[in-house]
Design a protein that fits this description.
The complex is a heterodimer of chains A (453) and B (80).
Chain A (H helix, E strand, L loop, with lengths): L7 H15 L3 E12 L5 E7 L2 E7 L1 H4 L11 E11 L4 E11 L4 H16 L16 E6 L4 H10 L6 E6 L7 H12 L7 E6 L13 H9 L4 E5 L7 H5 L2 E3 L2 H46 L7 H13 L5 H22 L15 H30 L3 H6 L4 E4 L17 E5 L4 E5 L17
Parallel strand pairs in A: 3-5, 6-7, 6-8, 8-9, 9-10
Antiparallel strand pairs in A: 1-2, 1-4, 2-3, 4-5, 11-12, 12-13
Helix pairs in contact in A: 4-8, 5-6, 8-11, 9-10
Chain B lengths: L7 H15 L6 H22 L5 E6 L9 E4 L6
Antiparallel strand pairs in B: 1-2
Helix pairs in contact in B: 1-2
Classes of the chains: A alpha/beta (453), B alpha+beta (80).
Chain lengths: 453, 80
């Protein structure tokens, strides 16, 4: 029997044919080690157990479908076929599928991504932004035909002045994550909407998978606009939920948060406006009572600003003779009292009772107050005229004059104190006279000045 | 309509502050009037902002290519 001689390549081919015939594709249980990803996307690793190790290659076309990351130490099942790699003559497993052992594939992928993004700080509380001030323009990322969109719109219909901009996407199936991410990126630029709701109704882990994809997580994290997630039911947590600024348990709850915020702001505004209106009603009421009282006392009721003006005029009256000054200063004191009372107006208000608010009533109240004060102003103008009659100018106008020694502004009121030969100055309504005293002293020679009573 | 520089939140907070001051019995008349006028202006601003948008429900019409500006169309959900 002649011995057969083999070429190397020929033998390898023969061996591989035998391997394929004997084993074909099969499942191998072991632990991953030495996982490497080549630039081409192919994965190389070993699968081993306590008794041995086998080299594995997984081509990029297959590796691209992996949902989780291959990591050293993972317990896995690989579906593979053994073959001899001709260039090195070494045995390796050509892997077509890797499944984690113990936990589900999706579960593992979920945990891995969560762990990785968490380490990056994407879930950090400091990154979370509150809902906007007034979320009035709502960006909605969901399927246009699911129950979620109806639930959300139903709740949002409770608040009338609101805009909803739906970016319709597929929320499950291959490529859904790409659509969801694109929608979030589009609406998240900052000028289109105030807040984004990313929602989807309940389903299996597989159904909700798009919301566990890294691309969606990255898009949410990068959004300038705050994102509210409402995916699945209460118990479902997705990666999107962790990255979102606000997590709602369901689509309905996401919408509720928006409306609740608007309703709360409106309530606060109504309350403030209501109190404001009732306070001013009270002030007007108090003021009119107080002014009526002043009117009864013939007081010089005026606004404080006008009181200042009046005080200025009074200061100019200071040069009046003492008796006249006494009359004026009595009025002055009353004015001060009035000013003090006006400045320190005691205002007491009742507690809020009703919530009905009509701004028009505020305007009416203000108008009432304004006209009230306007009337006071007119009444005062009369008092002011009376006071003006007391001024030296007015007295002089009536034909009286004031005489003083030249160089001494104090008015003379006793002829006995004037010596003959003294130079005098007499102020008339128009101009003044200089004169020389020729008589005087002793007797009461005349009245230089008549005082106003 | 020119958008106020103040945000709604700021206007509301100031309004609430004005009301608090106005509730103080010791406030003077002149001051009360000033507060009131400020309060009315703030309340009006808040109301304007609360009713600031006209109700609209629209959807974006995504084209095959990811164009920068997508068309909008009214959206009415299917009954179901």
């Amino acid at each position: 029997m002649s011995e057969r001689t083999w070429g190397v390549g020929e033998l390898i081919r023969e061996i591989n044919a035998a391997l394929a015939g004997t084993f074909g594709e099969m499942w191998v249980r072991g632990e991953l080690s030495g996982v490497k990803t080549a630039g081409s996307g192919h994965r190389y690793f070993q699968i081993k157990d306590s008794e041995g190790a086998l080299s594995c290659a997984m081509w990029s076309s297959r590796a691209g479908r992996l949902r989780f990351r291959l990591e050293d130490g993972q317990a896995v099942l690989v579906k593979a076929a053994p073959e001899v790699y001709p260039q090195r003559g070494s045995l390796q497993l050509i892997v077509v599928e890797v499944v984690p052992e113990g936990v589900g594939e999706l579960q593992l992928a979920f945990e891995q991504l969560k762990e990785r993004l968490s380490r990056e700080g994407l879930f950090a509380t400091e990154r979370k932004r509150p809902l906007p001030d007034l979320p009035q323009r709502i960006g909605l990322v969901t399927s246009p035909s699911g129950a979620a969109v109806r639930d959300v719109l139903k709740v949002l219909s409770r608040w009338l002045p609101l805009q909803v901009l739906l970016y319709p996407v597929r929320v499950q199936g291959r490529g859904a994550e790409i659509e969801v991410a694109r929608a979030v990126r589009y609406l998240g630029r900052g000028d289109l909407v105030d807040v984004i709701l990313v929602v989807r109704g309940g389903g299996s882990l597989e159904d909700l998978w798009a919301f566990n994809e890294e691309e969606v997580a990255r898009a949410i994290a990068a959004s300038v606009v705050p994102v509210v997630s409402g995916v699945g039911h209460e118990v479902d947590h997705t990666i999107a939920d962790f990255v979102a600024d606000v997590r709602a348990a369901t689509p309905t709850q996401a919408a509720e948060m928006i409306v609740a915020r608007l309703e709360d702001r409106k309530r606060r505004w109504e309350q403030a406006e209501d109190v404001l209106k009732r306070r001013i009603d009270r002030i007007v009421e108090r003021t009119s009572l107080r002014l009526a009282a002043l009117e009864g006392a013939r007081g010089l009721a005026r606004l404080p600003a006008r009181l200042q003006e009046l005080k200025e005029r009074l200061r100019r009256l200071e040069q009046l003779p003492p008796r006249l000054r006494a009359v004026v200063s009595a009025r002055h004191r009353r004015l001060d009292g009035t000013a003090a009372r006006l400045f320190h107006w005691p205002v007491r208000f009742g507690a809020p009772r009703r919530r009905e608010v009509v701004t028009a009533r505020l305007a009416v109240a203000a108008e009432r107050l304004r006209s009230l004060l306007g009337r006071r102003r007119l009444e005062f103008a009369g008092s002011e005229r009376a006071l003006a009659a007391l001024s030296p100018e007015a007295v002089l106008q009536r034909g009286f004059s004031i005489t003083m020694r030249e160089g001494d502004p104090a008015p003379l009121r006793d002829a006995a104190r004037v010596q003959p030969g003294e130079r005098l100055l007499t102020r008339l309504a128009a101009g003044s006279l200089r004169s020389l005293a020729v008589g005087g002293g002793g007797g009461r020679q005349g009245v230089l000045f008549e005082e106003e009573k | 309509m020119s958008r106020p520089k103040e945000t709604f939140e700021e206007a509301l907070a100031e309004l609430e502050d004005v009301v608090k001051k106005l509730e103080d019995d010791a406030v003077g008349l002149e001051e009360a009037l000033k507060l009131f006028e400020r309060g009315v202006a703030l309340a009006r601003r808040c109301r304007t902002q609360l009713a600031g948008v006209e109700r609209r429900v629209e959807q974006l019409l995504a084209e095959a290519g990811e164009s920068e500006q997508l068309e909008k169309a009214p959206f009415v959900p299917e009954e179901g």
